[in-house]
Amino acid sequence: MVGLVAVTVLGGFLTNRIRDGLVSERIGEVLRESARGASYAQSTFDQARPSTAADLQQRLYDVPRDLQSRGSGRPEVFFFRSPSQGSPVLVNDTATNQDLVALVGPGMRSAVQRDSAQQWQPVAVPPGRSPGVVVGSVVTIPGWGRYELYYLYDLSPEQSSLDLVQRTLGGGAIGLVALLGLLTWLVTRQAVQPVRSAARVAERL
Fold this sequence. Notes:
By secondary structure, the protein is an alpha+beta fold. It has four helices and five strands; from the N terminus they run H-H-E-E-H-E-E-E-H.
């Protein structure tokens, strides 16, 4: 019983440490990558300086797909015009996957609008509600104002790695408990055997 409790506690501890390590490392990579992407997007718009709404619309279509191809795991990329802009612009927001736009919630957008520093939050990515993270920042397009740039990363590969570790630890724990049970039985048998032999001798006397 004590061995089973010890194995369970150790397995839980190792699983938590591995999970925290995987998630922390991946989020660090995601934040660095999205920061480089935002810098690249800003540089692209600074050089392009779109002069017409049609030109801007085309850039807003091309840049997210360029950023997606540069990102690890092909993240989804969204561009939204910041609502704080004064004059309306007849340009549509763009996304590499329109079905996932709703994952950039009002709270996340408000945080990015208040503070142009990089913001992020965890999300559940449909259809399987796999773990993910949204990273947002601000890009200023010359002559057109502030736009919000968002990355959506699916962390399913990290979850799969964690599931594999948990299955491996679980199988190892079962094997270890079985081994402890066998050792306990053998030790008990060896300890009891002399007593039984002495009892049989006493009975014959």
